[in-house]
Design a protein that fits this description.
With 130 residues, the protein is of the alpha/beta class. Helix content is 31%, strand content 11%. A 4-stranded parallel sheet has the order 1-2-3-4. Helix 3 runs parallel beside helix 4. The longest helix is centred in the C-terminal third of the chain and has 14 residues. It is globular and about 45 Å long. The two termini are 32 Å apart.
Length: 130
């Protein structure tokens, strides 16, 4: 049985990469978590590569990990709030989907819904929630 269809591609953005020491690579941008130009470049690259969406995970907590390992990581020290960042990225992209998570532990569900609805209108219907 053959299956017809298309593969859907999503890019999960982690500011400095998904490896704990990726920020230390000579060509890495150690300030990527707070470098808007960096996010614009990778969003536009994903869009040119025909990805369907980019994804940002909200991280409103400190991750439990070995203190020695965490002290060598720049990944979770500073980064943008996902909806604000994706709203800004929507002005620099035209068709790629923009997806984020949002916690209802620290936000009322009504507020999360309102923020995503506003973002969806601002982005021309490209907002997604995970």
């Amino acid at each position: 049985m053959s299956r017809q269809g298309q593969m859907r591609l999503g890019a999960f953005f982690n500011p400095t990469g998904h490896h704990v020491a990726s920020w230390r690579h000579p060509r890495a941008q150690a300030d990527a978590g707070i470098n808007f130009k960096h996010y614009v470049e990778i969003a536009q690259t994903a869009e040119r590569a025909k990805f369907d969406l980019v994804f940002l995970a909200d991280n409103i907590c400190v991750r439990e990990a070995n203190m020695e390992a965490v002290s060598r990581s720049a990944q979770y020290i500073a980064n943008f709030e996902p909806l604000t960042l994706l709203s800004a990225l929507s002005t620099h992209t035209s068709h790629i989907g923009l997806v984020a998570t949002a916690s209802t532990s620290y936000n009322e569900p009504f507020h999360v819904a309102r923020k995503f609805a506003s973002f969806d209108h601002l982005s021309g219907g490209r907002a997604g929630i995970s």
